[in-house]
Structure formats: C-alpha cells, structure tokens
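Exam revision sheet. Question 4 asks you to relate a sequence to its structure. Input first:
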Amino acid sequence: MDPTDWIDDDAGNRLLPVLPLRDVCLFPGASLSTVVNRPAAVAAVEMAARSGRRLLALAQLDPATASPGGRDLHPLGTVASLAENLAISPAEHRVELDGLRRARVVRMLGVEVLVAEAEPVEEGDSGGEWGPAVEALARYLHAHADLRTFLEGQRRSGDPMSWVNLACQHLPITASARQKLLEAGAPERCQRIGRGLDALLRKEQG
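Answer key, structure tokens:
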C-alpha cells in the first residue's frame, strides 16, 4: 500500500481510535506486529476493526505509563491500517499494522478509549537525500545479513523512502531519538539516519 495514501483519498482530518505504543514508533511504509493487552488498547483495536480498519498509532511519552491518557502521548504519530487482528483471548490481541502516513493530533476525545481528530502531515520531498541514507543502510546491512531479510519482510512500499523509514523504526536507537526522526520531514530524516547508521557501524566495528 502506498504510504502517501490517505483515508478514502481525502486529505481532510479524520476521527480515529488511538493505539498507544511503548518504546516504538510506526513509520509510513513499514509494518509493525505487536501484542495488545491493555483494555483501552484492545477496545481501540476493536473499534478500528468495526470502522474502516484505520487507527492512529502514537508513542507514549513515558513507556512505563500503564494507562496513558491524551497528555501521555506524543502528538505526532502515524495513521495505520489494521492488516491483521487476531484475538488470542478476550483480553489480548495480536495485531499487525501497516503505516500509511504521518498525522498530528488536533484534539483528543474520550477518557479510557481515546479517539483523535487526526490531521495529515506531509512528508516533504526527500530530493536526493534518500540516496546517501539508503547507501548507509546498505553498508550497515552488509555487516548484518540477517537483518536485511527481516527488513524486506517489513517493507510495505516500493518508495525508496520506505527503506529509510524501516531503518528509523527497527535499528537500535533510543525511543526518543526514534520519535524525533518521525517528527522530522523526509530530507532531515534521511540526513539523520544516514549519519546515525554510519556512526553505529563505526562503533560496532571498533
């Protein structure tokens, strides 16, 4: 699915159930498999399954928060398609999300189950910045062959930027750094992850 797609090809705001994420961000053009077992999160997934299979994935400010409210979540996240929703038990679901595009919370509704008015955020034109970033990823993957197969399985778009987004989502960086990458436009994201990958590779190789 093209990560530039919006819901029903309409670029306007949408009301979407909110799925809080711990220690991870979902990026456009990438997928994320996770187990959902908090009551409000399970309810959000069930709401999405009944209403277009779309939700807004938002990272928590503090991963330790057990029952996050609107003020406990980053305001910028990713609209996701609910690709898989398997009920392991009434209180636990295994879900797979496909990231569509970034969106910002305009207002948050609800107390236990959160629903956000989400405004689409443009990626911006990466220009030629994605090339060096993908080359840096290729260098890193050359030293981590098993990771290439994994990332190829997580890719949801043929756009070269999806490789950059996969690197941002899955490679070993802190949760706060990951969120900053998500908040950055495409050119800056490419520059940051390219430099970061080369620095990480140099550190690993001593």
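Marking note for examiners. The chain has two domains: 7-120, 130-204.
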